[in-house]
Amino acid sequence: MELEFYGAAGQVTGSCHILRIGSATILLDCGLIQGGRRAESANAEPFPFKPADIDAVVLSHAHIDHSGRLPLLVKRGFRGRIHCQNATRALAEILLADSASLERSRVRRENRRRQAQGKALIEPLYDVDDVAQVQELMTGQRYDEAISVVPGVQACFRDAGHIMGSSVVELELIEAGQTRTVVFSGDLGQFDTPILRDPVTPRRADLVLMESTYGDRQHRSRAASLVEFAEILKNAHDEGGNVLIPAFAVGRSQEVLYHLGKNFAAWDLGHWHIFLDSPLAIEASEVYWEFKHLYDEDAARLFRGGEQMPLLPNLHLTRSADESRVIERLKNGAIIIAGSGMCNGGRILHHLKNNLHRRETHVLFTGYQPPGTLGRRLIDGAKSVRIHGNEVAVKAHVHTIGGLSAHGDQADLLRWYSAFENSPPVCLVHGDPDASDRLRLELNALGTPAELARPGGRMNLLNLQQLPRLD
Predict the structure, then answer these.
(1) Would you tell me how many other CB atoms lie within 10 Å of the CB of residue 119?
(2) CA trace torsion 63, 67, 69, 72 (10° rounding)
(3) Which fold has domain 222-404?
(4) Tens digit of pLDDT per residue, the chain (471 long)?
(5) Which fold has domain 2-217+406-467?
(6) Cβ atoms of 61 and 161 closer than 8 Å
(7) Are 457 and 9 in contact (CB under 8 A)?
């Protein structure tokens, strides 16, 4: 009975861990590594196991850094079941299809460059047929109902409050008469987040595999963040510019629309044209509307009797590329919500290309930006960036509103952990080393044994002792 740390150990993206019990092998997540060309190369590398030998996957949620290598796993031979929450299954279908489309476009661009240089062409990591096979293998579950993953392993999905369907996975492992409970946090949301319920903490655990994305900082309060949001919109209007919001299609787009709708009158939004310029985010919003029974009390009360989220009278859902191109003509008065959230693809690139050089433009980030992404370069103050092969001067105002992040901050993470009835040891994953180490020190101060997971590190789950690496 052992756990091996593979992806998102010592970094944020690429979540994937290997659980071995008896003769069975299970993956916890199977996500893409994100953050530039080095990440693209790492995604294509062989798995440290034979995909055909994996018996099952337990998926915490649909975000691509947790699900994005599932089609590659299938392409290379996996044929087991993929267990997840029902809403995760619905969201993963559209997110993985979009990922395959982006991969196809990326490879097409790269091969044009390679062909011009006389280099060998490359193949996409996977295609839509691989995504379709993933969907056939996925089994959706309700929250709080225990299921059998393989003999000797039961899983129960608890609400993680991160995006719709996100789960804290409670695993009960039985081998040779010994029972252990391992809790995998997945990604934990903030407490008191609109639309979603608060993260749930299981009662007890023998080991907690815990995310630490923002383990070294506190978000600005949500109230203060909304004041800042309103001020940015007012300043952009007064200066005669546009507001660009690079937003993740799942979670951030829906929350941004929620706040715009709820504060439509107070923020005097009637003079704006608001665009949700993302077919993916539009599809994801439809999933959010379908799973209204998972809303928190405030959202359920607000939406009760309605068929969808609060309508903005000036909201435009731009599905087609032609509709998106029309937006480019607007030099002021537009709030444009578009993907990708890390600016590593999607329609937001066109809007950035057309607006970054204008001083009256405001760019508003609401989520984590990994090193190597265009989003991180903008936040770090780049004076110019390269988009679609062109150098673009950055004169726009760039803002980060951390209080709207889908990830809990240090206080949220400690609050979630403190609700365990015992004080189980913790292995920290899904965080940059500095963030993870800061959270480790905070947990140690509470008397909790906590350590940072290392890629390739292994743990005996019976005695919680480190094991030698397999390589």
Answers:
(1) 11
(2) -130
(3) Rossmann fold (3.40.50)
(4) 999 999 999 899 899 999 999 999 999 999 999 877 777 788 999 999 999 999 999 999 999 999 999 999 999 999 999 999 999 999 999 999 999 998 898 899 889 989 999 999 999 999 999 999 999 999 999 999 999 999 999 999 999 999 999 999 999 999 989 999 999 999 999 999 888 999 999 999 999 999 999 999 999 898 999 999 999 999 999 999 999 999 888 888 999 998 999 899 999 999 999 999 999 999 998 899 889 889 888 777 766 655 455 568 899 999 999 999 999 899 999 999 998 888 988 899 999 999 999 999 999 998 778 888 899 999 999 999 999 889 999 999 999 997 888 899 999 999 999 999 999 999 999 999 999 999 999 999 999 999 999 999 999 999 999 888 776
(5) Metallo-beta-lactamase; Chain A (3.60.15)
(6) no
(7) yes
Angle at 329 between CA 325 and CA 332, to 5 degrees: 125
Phi-psi region of 375 (alpha: psi -120 to 50; beta: other; left: phi over 0): alpha
Q: Give the amino acid at 48.
A: P
Q: What is the pTM of this model?
A: 0.90
Domain ranges of the chain: 2-217+406-467, 222-404
Per DSSP (E only), the strands in 356-413 are: 362-365, 384-387, 390-393, 397-400
Identity of the amino acid at 442: E
Tokens of 194: 């609109």
* Residue 161: burial class (beta carbons within 10 Å; 0-12, 13-18, 19+): buried
Cβ-in-10-Å burial (0-12, 13-18, 19+) of 426 comes to buried
Tell me the C-alpha distance between 331 and 327, whole Å. Answer: 9
Contact 360, 236 (CB under 8 A): yes
Give alpha helix (H) positions in 9-85.
37-43, 64-67, 70-75
In whole angstroms, what is the distance from residue 39 CA to residue 202 CA? 34
Cα–Cα separations (whole angstroms), residue 418 to 24, 103, 202, 442, 447: 32, 41, 11, 12, 11
